Amino acid sequence: MTESSQSLLLEIGAEELPSSFVDGALAALPGIVADELAKARLSHADVRALGTPRRLAVQVRGVAIQQLDLDEEVVGPPEAVAFKDGKATRAAEAFATKLAAPLGSLVVLEKAAGPKQKAGRYVVGRRVEAGRRAMDLLGSVLFSVCAAIPFRKSMRWGNLETPFGRPVQWLVALFGTELVPLSFAGVHSGRASRGHRFLAPARFDVTSPDTYVPQLRERHVLADRAERVRTMTDRLEEQARSLGATYDSESALIDENASLVEEPYVIAGSFDAELLHLPAAVIRAVARGHQKYFCVQTSDDELLPHYLAVVNTANRPDLIAQGMDRVMRARLADARFFWQEDLKTPLDRRAERLGGIVFHNRLGTVREKVDRILRLSENIGRLLSLDEEARGALRRASLLCKSDLVTLMVGEFPELQGTMGRAYASMGGESSMVADAIRDHYKPVGAQDDVAPGDVAATLALADRFDTLAGCFAVGLAPTGTADPFALRRACIGVLRTMLDRGYSALSFCDLARSAYAGFDGVKLDLTQQETGAKLEQFATDRLRGLLAGATSPAVADAVIMGSGPAALDNVVGAAARARALQTVVDASEPWLNKAKTVAKRLTGISREAQPKLHSAASFAQSAKADDAVIQRLIADLDAATGSLVTESAVRDALMSMERVATELDRIFVETLVNDPADPFTLARLETLAHGAQSMVRIADFSRLG
Description:
Elements: E1 5-14, H1 19-39, E2 47-52, E3 55-64, E4 70-78, H2 79-82, E5 83-84, E6 87-88, H3 90-99, E7 107-111, E8 120-129, H4 138-148, E9 168-175, E10 178-179, E11 183-184, E12 187-190, E13 192-194, E14 203-205, H5 212-218, H6 225-242, E15 246-247, H7 251-258, E16 265-270, H8 280-290, E17 294-297, E18 303-311, H9 317-342, E19 358-360, E20 364-365, H10 366-383, H11 388-400, H12 408-412, H13 419-427, H14 432-440, H15 455-474, H16 488-501, H17 509-518, H18 529-551, H19 554-564, H20 572-587, H21 592-609, H22 627-641, H23 648-671, H24 682-699
Parallel strand pairs: 9-12
Antiparallel strand pairs: 1-3, 1-9, 2-3, 4-8, 5-6, 7-8, 9-10, 11-12, 13-14, 15-17, 16-18, 17-18, 19-20
Helix pairs in contact: 1-4, 8-9, 10-11, 10-15, 11-14, 11-15, 13-14, 14-15, 15-16, 15-17, 15-18, 16-18, 17-18, 18-19, 19-20, 19-24, 20-23, 21-23, 21-24, 22-23, 22-24
């Protein structure tokens, strides 16, 4: 560091924090520290967040040793409030006192309107402060940092009122080699930190912020999370190679384990090979979900009777392995029992038991939901013209899709719903088309997940989600703010993505929403079909806009959606095709595009004055204006080109027609008085142009492109 700056270190030692607390704090700390230093007018370089279950720390390089001087203009009260009859009022005196400035230094200036003021004359003064030593400020800065760290759930302890994720045990606060005085949660800052709880438990003094990480590393603590992840994955790979296999890596499992240990040690365990007859998903659920273990597999993804555990100590690995094996064997033995018991009852005999599971107290049971899914899926199947085999499989899959919810295995491992349904259906002799649909109708599970891969599964997925959306919206459960307990945003995005990715141009979101609402016949709902449809249309339109913006750009998505309005939902595949083709034109900066924007605005104005109507060429045969025939031909060609915009090639053809329309109409609007009150052909001309506006927005609202 230079003579004008030093490194800053804050370490908060605590009782073991949950992994999610560590991850959340590390993500938030750089921003919190930067904000607090900015408030204190202390310049700095990079901010580095560090942490393990026992400590959260932040290391800041290049923190100025002197606060920046302050010299800023401050706008005070309006002139009418600050002065009465030429004399200063109490408001002016208070303003001067606030600035620590003489009353005579205040001036009156004309100010433009701003976020917090109207345009007018205001009293203005200058706040001037000499910068203070950083050491005089850092105590309060670091206190604010400690207090601002977010936790999903904080706690209090002893007789203290200060909340934190877990009880604070020690504090280290250093600016260069100097100790920063700080008190937080009843603990005073010092130099003494702690090493690894088991391998280096003794206290030690941190020499400086720059030596903090290496000093901890010597004491078996990897404070840098990225270093901890690298070390852990290297050791996992080494252990897996020793078993002649690879480990079943999963990013979420790696992240969680990295925040559970201070230095990762990997121990291999094993279980009886006969347990491998269980479905691989079950073994993985036991290892990952309950124990946070990594499964071991061959290069062909075949599981081996081994697993890898990340632990926080190198002491007595043999004893640790014995304990882990006992727990793993017991967990897998339970899973084997569930599997064997579940196989005694076929899925189709479990359907009636779904009547004992409430889907929602206003919307009936899961059994009733299955009945609605069956009817809705058959309707979708007809619209998609599925063949007889697929429609038979769809009916069977609809009847069985939720039956695994009453199995012992799904009761223990809810995340296996669908997966176990497929396994039990296959064991029960169902076709692969039926079994796969039972598993895949939950797709897409997340934003990055693939949609259901087959028509049967995709149709079932749509029916399930439409039923949920229509029912929940009809009883007033639409998401508000960030609250979405029924994951309706995810369900709506899943519907739209399925229709888009599968190319289902024959399906209308609005029509299917109405069909789903009709399935609740006899159920007391809060909203009518029309009210529910209107809310769902707006909800889905916002989601579609987001999907199109992600695939193209916000401006293009807005132009396509605003051009079509709710009609975009009648064919989301066509809306996506229009967005992609239009984005190509925007990216190429086609010269006619600016003309199209101008023409679109002009036609929008005309459409407010005249009803859209495409007049025939014969209607203008006697017109004295030669451009009337040009207008009629252009609009007729555009109308034909925009009649069916489902594929990108059709949209490209429409855009070629749009190029001609934009170029010619831009010329005509300059050279011709289209709204000539003395011309008998004006009404027909305006109506034809209004029809052109209507044809243009079938592609997009070009006026919104810039």
